[in-house]
Amino acid sequence: MQNYRLGDYIRQRRQELNLTQEQVCAGICEPVTLSRFENGRQTPSRTRINAILQRLGLPDDRYYALVTPEELEIEALKKEIVACNALKHVNEGFDKISQLEKIVKPDDQITQQFILRSKVLLGGLDKRYSSDE
C-alpha cells in the first residue's frame, strides 16, 4: 500500500485544476503557508484544510485517510521496534524507542501505550525488567 501525504494530494488537485497557490489560498491562508502544506513542512489546522479541500472541490473526509510526514515516521519506527523485538535486537529496539519518544505527542495515548509495552517486552529479553514488574 502506498502512503500519500496530504500536501501531495492538495498539490496534485491544484495542478489538475490549473490553479496557482495564490488562487487556492485567497482568504484562507498565505501562499507561503500553502507551499509549506504541499511540501510537508507544516500541518494545516482542520479549519484551513477543510476550506482548501472545499475550494478544490474535494470531500473533506479524505483528510482522515491522508497522513503527515510525522505520522509516517511514527508508523515506520513502530514497525522497526516490533522487528527489533521479534529479532531480539534489544539495544537497537531501545534506540528506536528513544527516537519515537522524541517525536510522539504526549496526548497520543495509543503510541504512548505502544512505547510502554515495547519497553517491557524488550526489557524482558535482556532482564532489565522482571516478570514482577
TrEMBL record:
InterPro entries per the record? Cro/C1-type_HTH, HTH-type_regulator_Rgg, Lambda_DNA-bd_dom_sf, TPR-like_helical_dom_sf
What residue stretches are annotated with the HTH cro/C1-type domain? 10-62
SUPFAM superfamilies with a match to the protein in the record: lambda repressor-like DNA-binding domains (SSF47413)
For molecular function, the Gene Ontology terms on record are: DNA binding
Name by which UniProt lists this protein: Helix-turn-helix domain-containing protein
Source organism per UniProt: Faecalibacterium prausnitzii
Lineage, highest ranks first: Bacteria, Bacillati, Bacillota, Clostridia, Eubacteriales
